[in-house]
Design brief:
Number of helices: 3
Strand order of the largest sheet: 3-2-1-4
Number of strands: 4
Number of domains: 1
Helix content: 25-40%
Radius of gyration: 15 Å
Strand content: 35-45%
């Protein structure tokens, strides 16, 4: 059975003029399977080397709140229509400035 799945790459953009970006998370959404989950970067040293002015403790705390928002669980299931095909677009539309999402579709068996 083929499933249509969407994924979104969350990119950290410390400076738009330099157009440098680093992937910090990936979100996977499968409406048919009622699945939504996020994986956050674990290599904090790499992120710090990418942006030597970054407050790494703030970034960890911020990404923890993002992780809580994008994991479908008992604490947030009432606020999420997990079967909505446009869920990722709706959840990521307000991320601007230093964080952007790039959304793609993929079909899997």
């Amino acid at each position: 059975m083929i499933r249509n799945v969407k994924f979104a790459i969350m990119k950290y953009v410390p400076n738009y003029e330099r157009d440098e970006r680093m992937n910090v998370a990936v979100v996977l959404h499968s409406p048919e399977d009622r699945f939504l989950s996020i994986k956050i970067i674990k290599n904090w040293r790499r992120l710090r080397e990418f942006d030597d002015e970054l407050d790494i403790d703030f970034m960890k705390s911020y990404l923890k709140t993002v992780e809580d928002q994008f994991n479908y669980n008992l604490s947030n299931f009432e606020n999420i229509n997990i079967e909505d095909e446009c869920l990722l677009e709706k959840m990521t539309q307000f991320y601007i400035n230093q964080f952007v999402f790039v959304i793609s579709n993929v079909s899997i068996e």
